[in-house]
Amino acid sequence: MRLKTRVAVLCVGLLASLQVLAADLPQRWVSAGGALSEWVSALGGESKLVGVDTTSQHPQSLQALPSIGYQRSLSAEGILSLRPDILIGTEEMGPPTVIAQVKSAKVRVELFSAQPDLPTLEKNVTHLGQLLGAQAQATQLLERYQQQLKAQQSRVAKLQAQHEAPGVLVLIGHAGGKPLIAGKDTAADWLLQQAGGHNLATHTGYKPFSVESLAGLDPEVLVFADRALSGEAAKAALFKENPILQASRAAKAGRVLELDPTLLVGGLGPRLPAAVQRLADGFYPAKGNP
Amino acid sequence: MTPLVKPRSLFLGLTLLCLLAIWLSLALGPVSLPLFDTLRAALRMLGLPLAPDGLEQAELILGQIRLPRTLLGLAVGGVLALSGVAMQGLFRNPLADPGLVGVSSGAALGAAVAIVGGSLFGGLPEWFGPYLLSACAFLGGLGVTALVYRLGRRNGQTNVATMLLAGIALTALASSAVGLFTYLADDATLRTLTFWNLGSLNGASYARLWPLLIISTGVALWLPRRAKALNALLLGESEAGHLGLDVERLKRELVFCTALGVGAAVAAAGMIGFVGLVVPHLVRLLAGPDHRVLLPASVLAGASLLLLADLVARLALAPAELPIGIVTAFIGAPFFLYLLLRGRA
Predict the structure, then answer these.
(1) Alpha-carbon distances, residue A268 vs A34, A171, A184 (angstroms)
(2) How far is A5 from chain B (nearest CA, A)?
(3) What is the complex's ipTM, to 2 decimals?
(4) Is-contact A282 A200, C-beta < 8 A?
(5) Which residues of A touch B199 (CB under 8 A)?
(6) pTM for this predicted structure
(7) Where does this one sit in the cell (chain B) (predicted)?
(8) Which of A132, A151, A235, A266 shows a CA-CA span of 20 to 30 A to A74?
(9) Looking at the partner chain, which of A70, A81, A101 has a beta carbon nearest the beta carbon of B318?
């Protein structure tokens, strides 16, 4: 009995001291950026999130949180009604007057760059780790992330020395209909390069394509990201809506890969290395693969 | 047709409605403030020496967020409805709305240039950056309207029918140009453009408010002075001329006031449809076509309607926000239909 009480007191004391430590850190978080919310969750801060924007779709549990709208058309009073200690977002976040109003209500506003490169990511995750009081976890996550990407890079380099990079098209559609093709300067293009694919599209941004030019490019591999359907249903819809694709080399050889469209929003997220690996597996199929 | 409501009771009712809308707009929001705090903060801002304890948040939300937003709603709603009356009077057609002379599409084009091509204006001073969109929208609206007016003129006469057709042609031209910019835009700018086209009173600040307040007050003071002339114009252009009215000058004034007012409103709050078309109708259904009543009553009705619509816009999905253009159409259109059908029965 005595011992139990002592242990209990000790526990309470420990807890209290942790609370004191944590008191300086922001406790109620609002995040306005898909990748940022994902990193917060990955760093174990999901319970601190009290609101997210519409681009924060992953992990799925975030969708149950109050939505503050789209990151570029936030509402000051809406955010303040969640009584946050901190608002995080990318430089996309706005409109500027709203951000100023939130700041003047003594809410800490932290901006993170959405630049899709590793140094930026390193800075962002380290900073998030500090704000969440999870520095060690941040370092660990980052190390693993970089290792995975580096391993991918060397693997892709080796494969590219042996085989020619396959010509790929990335189609982003809604239930198969009228897909947009991912060109240069897109997150999809970056993913493709990391996985060792050669993007056949030469335009910039996401643009609609004529059926004829699709047929003319004759991709070896098709990657599709569907916002409405997933899996086999999405694949079937894609070919049903765009029968010309059935004649492509990719369709004949069955080299059609699926990509989660939420990966393509708002900078580099924690799920990217896995996605790169999956794409690379598809680009350079098993024969003689390590 | 005898009016359903006498002018005096109409003005009394609309004034009360407007005051109620203002009060609700200041008192309600996603942050729930105790009514007493709101009242005390409001009184303190009016200069009453009350103790400031515990009022910090209330004052901030009232003074920095809700008050500018309410003022913006009043000005935008009033000036849009007023321009609607002016256009319906000018074209002698109840289907006319401020968009007919190209001011909305011109503003949309200006906005598209600013949003999509914003990075091309590299040499602009930094302080101007936040105002680029508003300035471009305002100038675009003014420019296209001037062009429409110019195209409608021949031999010193303004032909309203030609102007109408020129307006339709230039609107189509401007929309295709907006379409081209939409095609060139990347994902983020595309969404900004889409949201802009749906309008919002979100993010109102005093810096953006002053130009609109000055312009809309000017228009709201000027146009009602021309009520008698607009009444005469209802008879027809030549009849109005025979009554000793300078019809050309009146047309010029109407077009200019609309371009200025709608241009400023759109620049401050984006495209908000429906108000300019339907508010004058509502008032006409209630009070008859006399412009001496119609003009001032439309200001009050437009301002009230927009404030109430904004209330829905900010509360319906709180903490997120609906674009107000969706709300004005969603509430207003069925109500309008109801009035039409009831009138027929």
Answers:
(1) 9, 20, 16
(2) 41
(3) 0.84
(4) no
(5) none
(6) 0.85
(7) Cell membrane
(8) A132
(9) A81
Query: Is there a shared CATH topology between the A26-133 domain and the A165-283 domain?
Result: yes
Q: Of the candidates B343, B285, B324, B294, which has an alpha carbon nearest to the alpha carbon of residue B84?
A: B294
B188 touches chain A (CB under 8 A): yes
Question: Is residue A9 less than 8 Å (CB to CB) from chain B?
Answer: no
Residue A92 pLDDT class (50, 70, 90 cuts): confident
Q: Which residues sit opposite A256 in a β-bridge?
A: A222
| CATH classification for the domain delimited by A26-133, as one of 3.40.50.1980, 3.90.550.10, 3.30.465.60, 3.40.30.10 | 3.40.50.1980
B150: pLDDT strictly greater than 60:
yes
* Helix, strand, coil abundance in chain A, percent, nearest 5: 50, 15, 30
Residue B311 belongs to a domain: yes
DSSP state of A184: B
Query: How many structural domains does chain B have?
Result: 1
The CA-based dihedral angle spanning residues A34, A36, A39, A40, taken in that order and rounded to the nearest 10 degrees: -110
Contact call for residues B279 and B272 (beta carbons, < 8 A): no
Q: Is B256 buried (19+), middle (13-18) or exposed (0-12) by CB count in 10 A?
A: middle
Distance from CA of A189 to the nearest CA of B (A): 14
CB pairs < 8 Å spanning A and B: 90
